[in-house]
Amino acid sequence: MAMYKLSSTKINKLIRQGKKGKYGDGGNLWLEVAGVDVAFWLFRWKDRVTKKDRSISYGPWHITNLEAARKLAEADRRLLWAGNTDPKQERDARELDEQIKLGLAKTVRQVVDEFTTNIIEHNALNTQIGTKRRMRIVNRNIGDMPFAKVTRQTILDDPKVTPEGKVIPAEGTKEALQKYLELKPTGPFADSAKGALSSIEGTVTTSYENPDAAKTKKGKKKN
Question: Is residue 210 part of a domain?
């Protein structure tokens, strides 16, 4: 694979001329020119699982210079070579950790409080009472956790799986998520709520076989 195919001189010429297109530097690094003086860096790769093309941006050319873009690309190539690590997920995780460190990432409790103030308290009293009860349960279980870190495991009180592969969430969690989506289906946390709810309602692979079910099948007679 040819590396370092671009130069500062060539980049400046392409950008001044506004020649639209993607220009490879090698090693998954590309410069995308969108017009005169408009260009940004991309790191592109093919997902090993889905086989789909993926990309992340390193920012505009006048903010991220050629040397900086190459260093970023080298770090992300190492992630790809190491295994199934997704460079975008890795970057998002680093940014989230930094936000948490600075106290900028919202906790589940903060999201619940906002939801209560902006949505729940504008509903009928009976709705408020039931929903607030479920929200208190959620806060008690995972209230101090950063909302963006919530996963299937974190919303399970004592992780259990039924013989059919259904996960059993902590009391009130599923109802709270459903109520949020019912009242604010396009809210800022709707996608996260849908993902968490999907995990709860989904199934997990299990080798469990119900012996009684097997006996019933054997006992059936053909007509």
Answer: no
Q: Which domain holds residue 123?
A: 108-201
Contact 210, 187 (CB under 8 A): no
If we measure between CA atoms, which residue out of 174, 187, 191, 192 comes closest to residue 135? 174
On whether both 97 and 114 belong to a single domain, the answer is no
Examine the fold and report which residue of 66, 101, 136 is the final residue of a domain before the chain moves on.
101
For residues 1 and 8, give the distance between their C-alpha atoms in angstroms, rounded to a whole number. Answer: 20
CATH number, residue 85: 3.30.160.390
Q: Which contacts of 23-32 are long-range, i.e. CB under 8 A and separated by 24 or more positions?
A: 25/66, 25/69, 25/70, 25/73, 26/1, 26/2, 27/1, 27/3, 27/70, 27/73, 27/74, 27/77, 28/73, 28/76, 28/77, 28/80, 29/69, 29/70, 29/73, 31/6, 31/61, 31/69
Place of tokens 């260009």: 39
Residue where a domain stops, chosen among 101, 130, 160: 101
How many structural domains are present in the chain?
Answer: 2
**How many Å apart are CA 223 and CA 216, to the nearest integer?**
16
pTM score: 0.51
Residues 77-132 have pLDDT tens digits of 998 888 767 888 888 878 878 887 787 888 888 888 888 888 888 888 888 888 88
